[in-house]
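Chapter summary example.
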Amino acid sequence: MRIGRDVEVRPLGGGKGCLVMLLVSVVASIVLTVLLNLLLR
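The structure predicted for these 41 residues follows.
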């Protein structure tokens, strides 16, 4: 992903890092949902 003229943003660790970030975000959202459900009971 390119921002401006000479600034380039790349996911950490290339493709693997991108997959890890996706997995972490999915797991975090599931955990947060479960915690919210437990708190709101």
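To summarize the output: The chain has a mean pLDDT of 82.
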